[in-house]
Amino acid sequence: MNKPNILIVEDEESILEMIALNLHHNNFQPLRAINAEIAESFLKKNEVDLILLDWMLPGMDGIDFLKRIRTNSNTNEIPVMMLTAKNEESNKIEGFDVGADDYLAKPFSQKELIARIKAILRRKKPDFFPKQIKHGNLQVHPDSHEVFHQSKFIKLGPTEFKLLYLLCMNKNRVLSREIIVDKIWNNESEIDARTIDVHVKRLRSTLKSHGIENSIETIRGAGYKLSDEINFE
């Protein structure tokens, strides 16, 4: 499944790049625009699943651009989240009245931003959030945190489940230890390579005890990836 395309319309480069990096780390595809004119060009050429729109833009401001989005039959269904330092109730009401789906005041937490994006997409585009991920005879259920192999339940600890889910969501990608720390432990500084190796070893051992051999590859000097040659006995 393709990653959701998120168009960021933000004229402050540092904020733009911070949001884009955070989106990339959370399996979204960021598209960047520093003003409404560039954003409008993107919308004509790309399929966009959600727009993060700054209010205070050079030239056409965010509110006027949102009005254009909502009056264009090609874009009026795209969900839009306003990102702005304007935090008065009247500003929020104006944004919602024009057609914003959500409103997040600056400065904001990157975790909250991702949570709000996911909440909007679950409502608007639920296909981006599969209820079950399959890899061979292995089924991973992200909502219930359950794993099955040939319909038999596999009990995993919370960290091992997160690790397996992360690997399944990145089947063809080698995940470095830094990425794993960022995704599972939110980049906590006290988590070292040894801790990750221990959890990988536990996950491999549990899967092996259920007849799943060669589950996770170690790529020397790079990290880990879900094996394309898992042997389901």
UniProtKB/TrEMBL annotation:
DNA-binding region of this protein = 130-228
Which positions fall inside the OmpR/PhoB-type domain? 130-228
Keyword list, A-Z: DNA-binding, Phosphoprotein, Transcription, Transcription regulation, Two-component regulatory system
List, alphabetically, the PROSITE patterns matched.
OMPR_PHOB, RESPONSE_REGULATORY
GO cellular component labels: cytosol; protein-DNA complex
Going by the entry's taxonomy, the superkingdom of the source organism is recorded as Bacteria
User: What is a GO molecular function of this protein?
Assistant: transcription cis-regulatory region binding
Q: Does the entry feature the keyword DNA-binding, yes or no?
A: yes
Q: Which residues form a coiled coil?
A: none
Q: Pfam families, from UniProt?
A: Response_reg, Trans_reg_C
What's an example Gene Ontology biological process for this entry? regulation of DNA-templated transcription
Modified positions (4-aspartylphosphate) are 54
Q: Which residues form the Response regulatory domain?
A: 5-121
Name this polypeptide is given = Two component transcriptional regulator, winged helix family
Organism in which the protein naturally occurs: beta proteobacterium KB13
Traced from the root, the source organism's taxonomic lineage reads:
Bacteria, Pseudomonadati, Pseudomonadota, Betaproteobacteria, Nitrosomonadales
